[in-house]
Specification:
This protein is an alpha+beta fold. It has two domains: 3-75; 78-113. It has helices at 3-31, 34-76, 136-143; strands at 77-83, 90-96, 102-104, 111-113. The strands form two sheets. It has a two-stranded antiparallel sheet with strand order 1-2. A hairpin with a 6-residue loop joins strand 1 and strand 2. Helix 1 packs across helix 2.
Length: 148
């Protein structure tokens, strides 16, 4: 058995056993029947521990999900350098591609709208350039194979 697992198990048993003993002793002095109260208090503490453990596990999972959602939100936030359409002041504007983007110019206080225009381009292959150190005569002979 793993040493850490053994330590955690012993600590968990002590956390259940010590309060159960104290509760059982108190009830024994008041009402008698020590063993019944010990078993009832141990079961009650165990159930309460399990319920609180499940609650905190769900809470941690929700916190992780919220944290991951926040990371995705921050990833989607970028900024663009924009020029005010009214006074031509240049500024950095935070943008979210999933929302309409308006901002007020800090100088003239006019509201500007950021508009994106997307286009396509052809992908070309790189030129086949000769290696450095190749003699010029070899380059000329390769480009003029007919001897012209």
């Amino acid at each position: 058995m793993n040493k850490n697992l053994l330590i955690v198990t012993l600590i968990s048993l002590l956390i259940i056993l010590i309060p159960s003993l104290l509760i059982s002793l108190g009830l024994y002095f008041l009402l008698g029947h020590f063993l019944q109260y010990l078993l009832i208090s141990m079961g009650t503490i165990f159930i309460i521990g399990q319920l609180s453990n499940q609650y905190f596990q769900r809470r941690i999972e929700l916190d992780i999900q919220n944290f991951q959602a926040r990371i995705e939100e921050l990833k989607s936030e970028q900024s663009v350098e924009a020029t005010c359409a009214y006074c031509k002041t240049r500024m950095m504007v935070p943008i979210k591609l999933s929302q309409r983007i308006t901002h007020a110019c800090p100088d003239c206080k006019q509201v500007n709208l950021i508009v994106f225009q997307f286009t396509t381009a052809q992908i070309s292959t790189p030129l086949d350039l000769p290696q450095l150190g190749t003699p010029i005569t070899a380059i000329l002979n390769d480009s003029n194979p007919q001897g012209m």
